[in-house]
TrEMBL record:
Pfam families: IF4E. This is Eukaryotic translation initiation factor 4E. One of its GO terms (cellular component) is eukaryotic translation initiation factor 4F complex. eIF4F is a multi-subunit complex, the composition of which varies with external and internal environmental conditions. It is composed of at least eIF4A, eIF4E and eIF4G. eIF4E is also known to interact with other partners. Residues 29-45 have a biased composition (Low complexity).
């Protein structure tokens, strides 16, 4: 699991295209060379190693994530028949701790988004859509926070994003987590976690020999970790439903297959 460190918040927001998401001197050893050091080695050159935590503007080492992630944003509909593709916008992709914090600290907090807005954080190459080939056989865990004023949605969304990019929501060989999403609605906030399957092995997974019961237990394990990231009480249930069921129901609130 990746160790996702915490960086200090900047004094003010800046345009995304000015964020120093790559080393200032053009060296990107941590992503170009998987064996490159991600922390200062104990050599005579130790003083030359600079991370974003040592020097936010002139660092030369990044801390790579296990996957590249893409942030998406859904803007509120105008009420004039907008289709989903027009509302869904790809924002930026990143593959290091430094890039994540540079982006996170310079986008609008969830609590300040307009109603019917969404943030989606998905593995690169996966669109946050039911129809995407990597999502169509899957489902999602979700929880609605109905007392909006009593919830620190910014902190909760941050916890879930860190759990996702830090690979803490699943084990290395599970290959289930596709992304996480937060929805801003009039009566609630909802945070969801999308999975690749609903427990059933897909055709390409035949060699792994995972039974449906094993797949179900994997989803339950992910659900428990997701619930922990949301800091929910034991009596507060997160629900899992399949994308196909949601599509047939014409709603994101399809009947739950699993709860935890």
């Amino acid at each position: 699991m990746a160790d996702v460190a915490t960086a200090p918040n900047p004094q003010q927001q800046v345009p995304l295209d000015t964020i120093p998401i790559s080393p200032a001197d053009g060296k990107n050893s941590s992503t170009d060379d998987a064996s490159a050091p991600t922390s200062a080695p104990t050599t005579s050159d130790e003083s030359q190693i600079r991370t974003v935590f040592d020097d936010p503007n002139n660092f030369n080492v990044k801390h790579p994530l296990m996957n590249t992630w893409t942030l998406w944003f859904t803007k509120p509909p105008s009420g004039k028949g907008d289709n989903w593709n027009e509302l869904l916008k790809e924002v930026i992709s990143f593959d290091s701790v430094e890039e994540f914090w540079g982006i996170y600290n310079n986008i609008t907090p969830t609590s300040d988004l307009a109603l019917k807005s969404d943030y989606h954080l998905f593995k690169k190459g996966v669109r946050p859509e039911w129809e995407d080939s990597q999502n169509k056989h899957g489902g999602k865990w979700a929880f609605q926070f109905k007392e909006k004023k009593a919830v620190n949605i910014d902190a909760l969304w941050l916890h879930v994003m860190l759990a996702a990019i830090g690979e803490n929501l699943e084990d290395e060989d599970d290959n289930e987590v596709m992304g996480v999403v937060v929805n801003v609605r009039r009566g609630f906030y909802r945070i969801g976690l999308w999975t690749r399957t609903v427990g059933k092995a897909l055709p390409g997974d035949a060699g792994k020999g995972r039974t449906f019961e094993q797949g179900k237990e994997t989803l339950m394990k992910i659900g428990r970790r997701f619930k922990a990231a949301l800091q929910l009480k034991d009596n507060e249930m997160v629900e899992f439903s399949g994308h196909t069921d949601a599509a047939h129901a014409g709603s994101t609130r399809a009947k739950a297959k699993l709860t935890v």
